[in-house]
Amino acid sequence: xxxxxxxxxxxxxxxxxxxxxxxxxxxxxxxxxxxxxxxxxxxxxxxxxxxxxxxxxxxxxxxxxxxxxxxxxxxxxxxxxxxxxxxxxxxxxxxxxxxxxxxxxxxxxxxxxxxxxxxxxxxxxxxxxxxxxxxxxxxxxxxxxxxxxxxxxxxxxxxxxxxxxxxxxxxxxxxxxxxxxxxxxxxxxxxxxxxxxxxxxxxxxxxxxxxxxxxxxxxxxxxxxxxxxxxxxxxxxxxxxxxxxxxxxxxxxxxxxxxxxxxxxxxxxxxxxxxxxxxxxxxxxxxxxxxxxxxxxxxxxxxxxxxxxxxxxxxxxxx
Length: 319
Description:
The protein is 34% helix and 18% strand. By secondary structure, the protein is an alpha/beta fold. Strands 2-1-3-4-5-6 form a six-stranded parallel sheet. A six-stranded parallel sheet has the order 9-8-7-10-11-12, with helices on both faces.
């Protein structure tokens, strides 16, 4: 039996997490087909004939014999896939499907319920699998040992225009958060507070950053309409107290005021941060509860179980 994972070859990230979860559930039976060239030979072939490279990719999938195939994100060349009931499409963040784009797939899931109207408009009856939120990998997103003095706040994420005012309000109130991400050199904040910024780190390096801080701040990017992003689940795994921007439906994943603190504007964000910094015991208890909840409900093995429930019933195996 073969399981295909068709996904972008992220150095870290979602493809890696799903591949690890699939391998744990189906040892030796998982093949990752990258939607971008990986080897030097492939890069040369892609540079010489990108359309030919993409056609070969689709031909490889169509000629494969598999029990199930999970496609993370849609690509226009997927329109040429052979329609199969065991093709599963998982859409992350925003949805830009055109009529006919989903025809090759038996089931379609999405990460953000705020995009359901657009998705349902292009799907056939019975094709929608439902909302599948992000998750975390317990083997990677776990507390790192640190015995030194912790700094107050950290934020890990790339620059987004919606995030700038929130970060600016932190500096205005005298906080000096560590901000880790790309594209901030174009921000006025960077030139005022250059020592507070770091370039993005590999996923494997995030654990030590969180271990050195008392609070993780999560500001959703503009693209997030409802639910939440990957970071909320990952930070629960890392065991750091969280202050997360509210989005409708996020309370389905974590209980407000018990596992995570939410905020809706800059003033509430600052108040929630002060609250956690002033009560370290409460903060630690919330982080412990969030991690317990994540282990029980929000690992990528749980998500694989959901994706395959109508095709290959999978018994969840604790990591």
